[in-house]
Structure formats: C-alpha cells, structure tokens
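Researcher: We plan to redesign the surface later, but first we want a full-length starting point. Tokens attached.
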C-alpha cells in the first residue's frame, strides 16, 4: 500500500513540475500497483479505475 502511494506521488509530482516524460514512464507502474491493490481488496475497484483515469488525463499531451 505504501509503495502504491509513493508511486502515485511520483506521478503527481512529475505532472505538477510539468515533466510529462517522467510522468509517462512512472504511470504504468502506478497503474499496475492500483490494479494490484484493487485485486487484493485494499482499495475498491472503482476507486482504482477513477484514480487511473485522473492520472492519465492529467499528463500533458506534449
């Protein structure tokens, strides 16, 4: 769970700093950890899907 939070923080920090390249490289790992947490009922599956969608939308298109 803490690994997931740390990974989400890395993605959000990269997005806030405008570093799209880093955000794109960190995003797949964050998505994997969200899916894993949902699979083991650590978080609700819909919450995982919502978080994944929000992170993907937040990454700049450049």
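Model: Full-length starting sequence:
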């Amino acid at each position: 769970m803490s690994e997931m939070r740390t990974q989400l923080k890395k993605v959000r920090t990269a997005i806030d700093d405008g570093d799209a390249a880093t955000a794109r490289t960190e995003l797949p790992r964050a998505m994997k950890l969200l899916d894993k947490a949902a699979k083991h009922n650590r978080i609700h599956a819909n919450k995982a899907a919502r978080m994944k969608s929000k992170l993907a939308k937040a990454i700049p298109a450049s």
